[in-house]
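WARN  no MSA supplied for this record, continuing single-sequence
INFO  ligand: adenosine monophosphate
INFO  echoing inputs
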Amino acid sequence: MRPSLAAIAAELQGYDPQALRVDEVNAFLSRLAEPVTGQEHIDLFQSLGRILAQDLVSPISVPAHDNSAMDGYAFRGATLLPDRALELKVVGTALAGVAWRGELGPEDCLKIMTGAVMPNGLDTVAPQELVTLEGEHISIPAGFLRQGDNRRFKGEDLEEGYAALLKGERISPAALGLVASLGIRQIHVYRRLKVAYFSTGDEILSLGELPREGAVYDSNRYTVFGMLSKLGCEVIDLGVVPDDPVLLEAAFAEAAERCDAIITSGGVSVGEADFTKAMMKKLGDVEFWKIAMRPGRPMAVGRIGNALLFGLPGNPVAVMVTFLAFVRPALLRLMGSTALLPPLLKAQSLETLRKKPGRTEYQRGIVSNAADGSLMVRTTGNQGSGVLSSMVQANGLIVLHHQQDHVAPGDTVDVMMFDGAI
Ligand code: AMP
Ligand code: MG
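INFO  complex generated
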């Protein structure tokens, strides 16, 4: 049985929907969002960004043989002399992809190419640049090499029978290459999440509509579309829905029918909450929160049918910040990802930042390297929750934690870099 919101709330110490801390929101959401179970078996080229649904066990070792890390000469490392150059006779060439077979005397060596299988008994490679070649003989100067140098071991990257990738890992470009190096063409991934989004508000214009006084173009639909797409979700766009109970109810019903999660913006602030609240409660199990944060604060969360609901505030920056802080981690969990959130970085603030203890604040920051290579951060200026240009200019959020007070220039602050998230 899935826990009800009331059951989750009862487990959280001191839960107060009127004054939730940011960490309590995430603790709540991590209990609410249960990973999907559906899987697909898909081609590697289709799997970038998807979440692995089963451990991927190596069917082979990579590399499959001990091999040379350099172009040079392979020989027995035990014959190296501490104080005298080693003279060897070149009796053949080992090319990559062709195993060299033959007998080697104690003073013989082989010319060898990078990646070529180490011939039996040879364990060390002298790089080409190090040796002097005279006719069929080489001379390796003393003091530059130790036994075993420039040899790669069989299985040093991946060992046969062991998990090369774990269930829950996101397929990155590096993981794509790793899977390919095992000779595997198809992998099991969790199915993609379907997420529906609509904007609410009588004052919200869709693109293509003529401007009118007091109305604003719908930007949240685009930022949310972009952030969901970056996560690899299938996005279902349900447009703009006016503040009309009948139309809103129909939109929620359609979204719940088709999707794993529903995201809305607008209509959850104090002045508006009442009729939306009644309607959402009628349709599902929904809580209305006031979160101790800025920007953000009001948010509705719950389930309608089988879909998770995230009712975000309307202000464009608040939408992006609440998405990054809460919705993104919850959706990653729903997708089956086991990834940890990226670490916060420390940067020296170049400015005074006004802040009261008792709420978490997210200021838009521009992080760069100081002359000594350490990180420094300045804000983008006006931090109004409608100033979307601040999100465009920023490369991360300065996170001023719940109990933190004013920041003076030179103080260290935490920053959450956007990286690939937005
Ligand atoms: P609300 O949360 O509905 O009170 O909206 C707060 C502010 O965000 C108001 O100024 C709205 O006009 C604005 N807003 C709400 N939804 C959108 C949207 N989809 N695109 C741009 N601005 C919006
Ligand atoms: Mg509104």
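The chain has four domains: 5-38+192-334, 40-62+156-190, 67-152, 345-417.
INFO  checksum written, moving to next record
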